Amino acid sequence: MVGPSRSRETEDPPLPEPDRKATMSRWLPLKAFRQGSPLFGNDVVDDDLSEGIAREELSGLAYMFWGRIVVLGFLALWVFFTLPLERSGAYLLAIVTFALLGAPPYLLARRGLGGNAVTAVFLLLDAGVLCLILLVPPPFYVEGWTPQINLRLPNILYAGIFLVGMALSYSPTLVVWTGLSLTAAWAAGYLWIASLPGSVTNTSRQMLDGGFTPEEVIRRFLDPQSVSLTVLTNQVIFLLLITSLLTLAVWRSRRLLRRQVAAEAQRSALSRYFSPNIVRELSTSGDALIRPERHQAAVLFADMVGFTGLSEGRSPEALMGLLSEFHGRLARTAFAHDGTVDKYIGDAIMVHFGTPRTRDDDPVRALSCAVAMIADIESWSRERQRFGSEPIHLGIGVHYGDVLVGNIGDERRLEYTILGDAVNVASRLERLTREIGCTLVVSDNLVRAVRQAGGDPAAIAPALKAYPARTVRGRKAPVAIWCDTEPA
């Protein structure tokens, strides 16, 4: 029997899919973020913007549908309790019919089968049915009631309510279409009644300038067959004005919506490059990050021990998956402790606490983060072993001291980072874990800072033991350290 190839032997068995989004972190020019440079990833932002607008439009259809249901529900209750049963039945049937007409565009849009064209067709049908209900008197009206008399009722107000409800759509186009459809349907119905046999049409100018006496004007106005074209003109103007104002309001709301969605899209895209605390700072006072500042911070370096051996024989895809999972776990732990992920360096990660703003508990969170990282990687390592993969070992170094926080590079390519002796010492302490044979090495500076902040190093990291001072590369004076193993 032929055995599997070496590359297959060293590939890890499939593990649960990691959270890829939490692992994405790169460097990004802050100036490019504010100016909308292609370096920011406008394709991502445009996609997010389009998706955000589409979500809001679907949400608008939902509000329109449920708003219609609520309003019609109130009308149904009002009809049921105020009208006799023989009259309320027909009205309730009309209300139910109008309610059902609002369901198809919303349901189709939810399934991705509809769109503005489908919605426009149903809105045209809505306008026609609504005007039919409002203009044509039902057969159970009192004897002698004519369609012409029905024109004198304030039914146009219900049409106005329907039109106002379109403001929930976030679509100026749909508002204009609905207003024009409703106006056309109303005018067509009104003129149809005016054209019926026996209808007597008149205008205000005819009534006032026709030489009629006041008694004749009143008699013509009260005539059951009288139809005022002036009233129709006023109603059409009313609908068109409401349509214009609503269109302007929805257009302005949509602009504000686009700005809000764009800001969220940019924030989302920015979070793929920066830690959450940096994103918050950029969202509120981005210019503050441009100015370099000197203060104290805790610096943490975490590295995968034996990465060279683990990477031997692995395909690039498998190696990338391993690093993504490793980085993702460390980054999530860092974010949970409100740390700033500075960069990924191969199989290592650099995190600092005290940026962009210092806090009293920076050293406490740094030590707690280191302990949590170790626990998480140990848990992952046991899980890998159950699947038949090699265990993962970690080395972490943490130091507390003065740093310079700000941007380095030029205006075309900036990197927000920290510089200073504290960074170098933390990196050297992480390297000491191999020499000493431990997982965690922290400086005495950090331990003292934890105590000064009100924390208890023994409670946070019970395994820590004082270790003889060590000389690290790049420093003349030895560094007092603590390790999670007993001194030899």
UniProtKB/TrEMBL annotation:
Keyword annotations for this protein, in alphabetical order, are: Lyase, Membrane, Transmembrane, Transmembrane helix
Q: Taking every annotated instance into account, which residue ranges of this chain make up the domain Guanylate cyclase?
A: 298-430
Q: Does the keyword Membrane apply?
A: yes
Question: Pfam families from the xrefs?
Answer: Guanylate_cyc
Q: Which InterPro entries match?
A: A/G_cyclase, Adenylyl/Guanylyl_Cyclase_3/4, Nucleotide_cyclase
Family annotation (SMART domains): CYCc
Disordered: region residues: 1-21
Q: Does the keyword Lyase apply?
A: yes
Membrane-crossing ranges are 65-83, 89-109, 116-137, 149-167, 174-193, 232-251
The EC designation for this entry is 4.6.1.1
Q: Coiled-coil intervals in this record?
A: none
GO MF entries: adenylate cyclase activity
Q: What is this protein called?
A: Adenylate cyclase
